[in-house]
Write a structure and sequence with these properties.
With 155 residues, this protein is an alpha+beta fold. The protein has 2 domains: 5-119, no CATH class; 121-155. It is 42% helix and 12% strand. It has helices spanning 28-34, 46-62, 64-78, 105-117, 121-133; strands at residues 9-13, 20-24, 79-81, 83-85, 96-98. A 3-stranded antiparallel beta sheet has the order 1-2-3. The protein has a two-stranded parallel ribbon with strand order 4-5. α3 (64-78) crosses α4. The chain is globular, with a radius of gyration of 19 Å. The model has no long low-confidence stretch (mean pLDDT 79).
Amino acid sequence: MTLDKSKFTRKHLGVFTGQEFIIRKLVPREYMRIVGSLPIEIADSVEERLRQFTETVKEKMSDDKEAERINEWVLKYGVVEPKIYFGEYNGCPEDQVHHLDLGGDADGLMVAIVAFTFEMPGLMAALERFSKESDGDPLGPDGKEIRAEAVELVT
């Protein structure tokens, strides 16, 4: 088997500066821990769990100190290159970008990193393969229906 490292990173073009960034997926569970949404309570449906997660993120991001902490974590671990520097402005290394210089690109990077983090092509391919192999029969081994939205990815 050949290792395809391109599966782990993606190029992102900063719309405000035109700077090209290489971003990586974060561990979804770690991101959810950082934003304070773990543990997620067991809910009746996937939609309800997603709603709870979204509300938690909105609440955390409305607190400036929390938003700054979360943004720093996402940019620090989600941007491969150029590295984002969070120290004193005058101490920023030549091969890094100070976070204050990102301007509007910071928001675009955040959105791109989080979206990439929660992209699950492997899960979707497995669900599609399961559907084709079962001739559209949505029943699991115990005879109960398996719905794609009910599948929970454990990381």
